[in-house]
Amino acid sequence: MARRSRTRARLAGPVVDDGPGARRRPVGPVGGDRGRRLRGVGAWKPSRVYVQGDVVVHDGTEYTAKWWTRNQEPGDRWGPWEPSS
């Protein structure tokens, strides 16, 4: 009978660490539908890094990132976020 390895699988490639207590997650493809499915829709957090195509909810409105951003609050007309339709 073969022994099972107790070694945890390591994440290949770049990962995002959202701080203490948060789970590390692999960085998915940038932009497009696939990126949304992998990263999901969640509440905007200033300390989190977002890339083009990421979707967040802020003040009851869903926004999509137009480019890489961190600590830039959604809602600014000239910022990296646009309201999702």
Question: Key features?
Answer:
single chain; 85 residues; mainly beta; four-stranded mixed sheet; Seminal Fluid Protein  PDC-109 (Domain B); 27% strand; 1 helix; two-stranded antiparallel ribbon
Question: What does this entry show, briefly?
Answer:
The chain is mostly beta strands and 85 residues long.
State the name of the first-level CATH class: Mainly Beta
**Into which percentage range does the β-strand content fall?**
25-35%
Low-confidence stretches: 29-38
| Helical amount | under 10%
Q: Would you tell me the overall average pLDDT?
A: 75
- Using the CA coordinates, give the radius of gyration: 16 Å
How many helices? The count is 1
CATH architecture label: Ribbon
Q: Mind telling me the CATH superfamily name?
A: Carbohydrate-binding module superfamily 5/12
Based on Cα principal axes, name the global outline.
elongated
Number of domains: 1
Task: Write down the CATH topology.
Answer: Seminal Fluid Protein  PDC-109 (Domain B)
Please state the structural category. Answer: mainly beta
Q: What is the helix/strand order? A: EEHEEEEEE
Instruction: Give the biggest beta sheet.
Output: 4 strands, mixed
Assembly context of the chains: single chain
Describe the fold and architecture:
The chain has 85 residues and is mainly β. It has one domain (15-83): Carbohydrate-binding module superfamily 5/12 (Seminal Fluid Protein  PDC-109 (Domain B)). It has one helix at residues 32-39; strands spanning 15-16, 25-26, 41-43, 49-50, 55-58, 61-65, 69-70, 81-83. The strands form three sheets. A four-stranded mixed sheet has the order 3-5-6-8. Strands 1-2 form a two-stranded antiparallel sheet. A hairpin with an 8-residue loop joins β1 (15-16) and β2. Mean pLDDT is 75; it is low at 29-38.
